[in-house]
Every structure is written in structure tokens, then in C-alpha cells.
Specification:
By secondary structure, the protein is of the alpha+beta class. The chain folds into two domains: 187 residues; 105 residues, Arc Repressor Mutant, subunit A (Orthogonal Bundle), CATH 1.10.10.60. The chain is 56% helix and 11% strand. The strands form two sheets. A five-stranded antiparallel sheet has the order 4-3-7-6-5. Helix 1 runs antiparallel to helix 6, helix 6 packs antiparallel against helix 7 and helix 8 runs parallel beside helix 11.
């Protein structure tokens, strides 16, 4: 049997084809340098949806190149979006020389195509109507996958990657860690409910507002992509995730200022990068500066 970077290619081809057939998503196994070792279905390598947008294949390849390593830090799988906003999942497949091959499924979307058009393409990316029409005309092979199924498929991808890895990576300890990831994934999948998601996100923000958290950090905690989280949150809450984070930070800063905490320390403890940015945001929301507010109090 053929062997490339420690991977049984004949076995890999069967695994990739089976995953693509079962999931309805494209699946590909790539070497560390991006070379496609096996592929089935509509994969990134064959995708031309982003043609005409200024996004090149190199942009996508640069993004994919670090995902195998990232998956090792994320319970064995890494859910992310391509430069155009299409979703993919990657799981690392360690090779005989220590390099990380990657097993990737996608691209796919987790929202209604019309929402993808209006929010991601027209809204977030600000593309002109003609370009948006051209993109949507090439979306026929991009499947919609329900978020609950995405969580399940992502864990199946982890097991597939573990199966293709070298024998030492199929050890009981490795699979035990993957099983812990399965429990976590299913727990998140069963919580994908708009009201519950907003409550969970708000709690996370209220507990971590003082840290340097990003929208991506919040989305990972909720177990979904940033665009999907933004859409769910806006529909349920009537505002954005970042707006709520800022609101919480400003409200907590007002309490600290009234307690006599210095402005610079307040800014730091409320998660602002520096005092000047804190002052700018505070003035926008409160109509006055932190110093004037403090003096008034």
C-alpha cells in the first residue's frame, strides 16, 4: 500500500469518500505543504465561489495551513470560516515525521442562503450587488448543514483523523481525550437554542468582561461560528454581541469610578486596551468623559 508522510493513502481514500458520502460535504486529506493526498466531493481545492471577489486560492491556502495545529488545541477539531465566510472543519492527522497532515470537510454554510447573502456578503463584506449575484450563482454545490449536525460531524472527523494517524496516536489515552471532546461537543449541540445561547453568551461576557476577549472567543465558547452567533444573538437580543460587551464594560466602569478607582486602573480592569480608548467609548455612551463623571459622582 502507498505511504505518504506516514499515511496509508488507500485507507485514506476510503475514509475520505465515506465521510463525504455520509455528510454531504466535501472532504479532503492534505499534506503539511497543502498538497491534496485524497479528496471527495466539493472541497476547497475545487471551490470557485470566491472568484471575482479579490480573494485568491493562496488566501484560502494560507488560512488552511495553520488549522491542523489549531485543531490540536480545540479538542481535536477546529471550526472556522474561509475568507468569504464559508465554514470548514479540520482535524490534524499526525504523520511519521511529526508533521501534521489535515483532514478537512467543507465548505458549507450554517445559515439560510438568503441570510448569507444579506448579512455576510452584502453586510459584513460590503460587496456590490453584481458581485453578490455572481457569488450566489456559484453557491449551488455548497451545502447547508444544521449547527447540531455540524457539532456531530466535527467529532466524527476527529475519530476519522485518529483512525488515519500512526498507531501510537490510536492509543487508549488519545481516544480517551477524544471521547471527552465528544461529550463536550454533544453538550453544546444540545444547547443550540436562541434564548439559551443568548443567556450563555451574556453570562460568559459578564464573567470575562475584564479580559481581552474577542468575538471569536465568545463564539468558540458558544460552540458556533462568529457569523452564526451574531445572527442568532441579533435576532434574539435586538443588539450585537460586541455592543453588549461594551455596555457591560461601561456599566462596570461606572461602578468602579463611583467607588474611587483611578481612571487608568478602571480602564484596565474593564478590558479596555488603554485609557484613551476607554475615554472615547465612555463619552460615546454616556455623553461625558470618565473624569467628569467621576467628579460629578
Amino acid at each position: 500500500m502507498a505511504q505518504v508522510t506516514g499515511i496509508d493513502i488507500e485507507l485514506a481514500e476510503g475514509c475520505v469518500q465515506a465521510f463525504a458520502s455520509a455528510s454531504g460535504m466535501g472532504c479532503e486529506l492534505c499534506a503539511p505543504d497543502g498538497t491534496v493526498l485524497s479528496a471527495s466531493g466539493y472541497c476547497c481545492d475545487a471551490c470557485d465561489v470566491c472568484s471575482g471577489t479579490g480573494i485568491s486560492k493562496q488566501d484560502c491556502k494560507r488560512l488552511h495551513s495553520f488549522t491542523a495545529k489549531a485543531s490540536e488545541r480545540e479538542d481535536g477539531k477546529y471550526l472556522y470560516e474561509c475568507p468569504l465566510g464559508l465554514s470548514c472543519i479540520t482535524s490534524a492527522v499526525p504523520g511519521s515525521n511529526g508533521d501534521l497532515n489535515r483532514l478537512t470537510v467543507g465548505p458549507f454554510i450554517m445559515e439560510d442562503p438568503q441570510d448569507f447573502r444579506d448579512y455576510d456578503l452584502s453586510g459584513v463584506m460590503g460587496l456590490d450587488p453584481q458581485t453578490v449575484d455572481a457569488i450566489m450563482g456559484r453557491m449551488g454545490q455548497i451545502p447547508y448543514i444544521d449547527p447540531k449536525r455540524v457539532n456531530a460531524f466535527s467529532q466524527l472527523l476527529v475519530y476519522s483523523a485518529a483512525f488515519l494517524s500512526e498507531a501510537d496516536h490510536r492509543s487508549e489515552d488519545y481516544l480517551t481525550r477524544m471521547e471527552e471532546g465528544t461529550v463536550s461537543a454533544w453538550a453544546k449541540a444540545n444547547r443550540i437554542d436562541p434564548a439559551a445561547t443568548v443567556k450563555e453568551v451574556n453570562s460568559f461576557i459578564e464573567e470575562n468582561f475584564g479580559r481581552d476577549i474577542s468575538l471569536l472567543d465568545i463564539a468558540k465558547h458558544a460552540g458556533m461560528t462568529t457569523s452564526y452567533l451574531c445572527r442568532v444573538y441579533k435576532r434574539e437580543q435586538g443588539t450585537t454581541v460586541n455592543a453588549y460587551l461594551t455596555q457591560v464594560r461601561i456599566e462596570r466602569s461606572k461602578a468602579m469610578l463611583s467607588e474611587g478607582v483611578p481612571i487608568a486602573e478602571t480602564a484596565k480592569r474593564c478590558g479596555f486596551s488603554d485609557q484613551s480608548y476607554f475615554t472615547k467609548v465612555f463619552r460615546q455612551l454616556e455623553g461625558t468623559t470618565p473624569l467628569r463623571y467621576k467628579k460629578k459622582i
